[in-house]
Amino acid sequence: MTLRADVVAQLRAHGVEPAPGESPRELQGRLYDRYMEDVRALKARQQRGLIPLREYAGHAAALKARYPLLALPLPSWEE
């Protein structure tokens, strides 16, 4: 199994370093965990009053847009 170079670059941009023999599904899970950490941090910022509630949806959408790899089907991760 060989990951596409752009997939590896996106994973690394989020601090997910592919290990030898790690499957795309495992990598997807690790990336999703990172995304959820960012979602929880965003929610915490909103709850502390750093982000007005009326602006939260925009911030959440921007966060989701930074993780396009999560929307890519796993077979597309490989060359």
Task: Provide tags for this entry.
elongated; 0% strand; single chain; mainly alpha; 79 residues
Instruction: Count the DSSP helices.
Output: 3
| Beta-strand proportion | under 5%
What is the N-to-C succession of helices and strands?
HHH
- Overall 3D form: elongated
Question: Helical proportion?
Answer: 55-70%
Give the domain tally. 1
Largest sheet: none
Distance between the termini: 8 Å
| Average predicted confidence as pLDDT | 96
**Low-confidence runs:** none
Helix/sheet category: mainly alpha
How many strands? Answer: 0
Please tell me how large the radius of gyration is: 15 Å
Helices, strands, pairings?
Elements: H1 5-13, H2 24-47, H3 53-65
Helix pairs in contact: 2-3
Structure description:
The chain has one domain (5-77). It has helices spanning 5-13, 24-47, 53-65. 58% of the residues lie in helices and 0% in strands. α2 packs antiparallel against α3 (53-65). The protein contains three helices and no strands. It is an all-alpha fold and 79 residues long.
Quick take:
By secondary structure, the protein is mainly alpha-helical. The protein has helices at residues 5-13, 24-47, 53-65.
